[in-house]
Amino acid sequence: TKDNYIYKFVPFSINTLKLLTNGKIYFGTPHNLNDPFEGEFSLDEFNAYPDDEFLNEFYEKRFEFSKQERERRLTELKGKPELFKEDLAKYVKKTLKSEFGVSCFSKNPHNILMWSHYADSLKGMCLVFDKDLLLSSLKKSWLMGIELTEVKYEQKLPRVVPTLNDGNRLTFSNLEDIFITKFDSWKYEEEIRLHYHF
Questions:
Q1: What percent of the chain has pLDDT over 70?
Q2: Residues 63-94 as b or e (16 or more Cβ within 10 Å = b)
């Protein structure tokens, strides 16, 4: 049915021809997309502030600090614990923007702005995909883990809630929202996305 189709606007180029002849889809990391707010989010407060053991291990494993820099940072945190939230947000953004890929489609093949912005000012083409066939084909190749989701358009950045569980295990709620939420000024794109953790 018509509702089962999604559309990808592309320029007429060597890369597009390779995509067609090789049957491949390009996944871009969020920092390579044209929206400067891709991969951005608002980090909520912790349910409980991490202890010294967790902080030491976190800075040792997640940041390229020398031992001296790490000890200096841990000392600073004693006077300004809010610095950890800033460091954690930077780390999560850096990780998400480099480890996750997205491929963008639209639900509307007739949007003149999409033709203009993504199909080389109407000189490109619009590729048509059957959602079910595309997803089942990708899942066979990539062994699950890939999702196709409609983008949510909001007035604010998505909120992510960090939680420190028993055993000092750090988890986050709503991480997926980071990849499927855009400001409502992009609503005209009627976007639907494939997203995947590489």
A1: 97
A2: eeeeeeebeebbeebeeeeeebeebbbeebbe
